[in-house]
Amino acid sequence: MPLTYKREPLEEEEVEALRKACRTFEEEFIINVLLETGMRVSELTNLLEEQISWQRGCITTIGKGGKRRVIPMSSTTRFYLSNYFKNNTKFHLTPRSVQLKVKAVAERARIHKPVSPHVLRHTFAVTYLHRRGNVRALQGILGHSSIVTTDVYLNYSGARVIEDFNRVWEVNQNYGTDGTEKTMPKISQNMEPKKS
Description:
By secondary structure, this protein is mainly alpha-helical. It has a single domain (12-159), classed as hpI Integrase, Chain A (Orthogonal Bundle). It contains nine helices and three strands; from the N terminus they run αααβββαααααα. It has helices at 12-20, 25-37, 41-45, 75-84, 95-108, 117-130, 135-142, 147-151, 158-172; strands spanning 52-53, 58-62, 68-72. It has a three-stranded antiparallel sheet with strand order 1-2-3. The longest helix has 15 residues, at 158-172. The chain is globular and about 50 Å long. Residues 1-5 have low confidence and may be disordered.
């Protein structure tokens, strides 16, 4: 039996709607940093400026089970972190307040499925793989001790399954194994649908 998502990741248009629905810098910060890093909400709320290596472009965090790991920093993450930590040395919200803010932004964006910080973590993981990221690297970024835990993200959402099928199947079925274009089969007169 294939693994399924406990929390359905967001599709690209939902991610865009979520970003556009932010009204304050704090909301933008939360949504973008979670979407761009795959951090757990507890890791974000415990984040200290000293954990950020601006030169190396990464965040060092202590995750589940006290495991230390390095999270790469995208240019979007760098922008939000550098602006946030201009006036702060640590993050000032609790995990619960972050969850409520994420939920409020999702409602404003009219996303009709549950959205939480953990859904944003799932969205990061699926997006990373969809962009052809390495599953072993993702395992390290997310801090999973077992590759089996990371493999759940290999299950595509419905829209991505269709997109991938069309890319692999529909495009390639028009060409033979020798690379020459195939002609579409013709319907014989006996097989044509009868007019009513």
